[in-house]
Design goal:
The chain is mainly α. It is built from 5 helices and no strands.
Length: about 100
Amino acid sequence: MKLPIRKMSNTSKKHQSFCSEPMKGKPVTALPGIGPARGSQLQSQGYHKATDVYGKYLTMHENRNEFQGWLKKESGANFKQQGDCYHALRDWSDNNL
């Protein structure tokens, strides 16, 4: 039995779409908080797919501060972008695993 998708009233359509679908094959720019500029930075560091960033999130034991610090360092993401990406990965995990 599949659990219903948790939707928060303050999430974007990009967030809701990302969390409700399989991640496999999606580009890094499919992640909420990651647009073309941040995506380009991540791709230059070897993170081409959303699953690449998700793997990094998991290796950090889903630690918010550690992940957001890494995202800032690797892509130059601001605090809001960091939070959007973190929350999307956390919610995707909650909804799909």
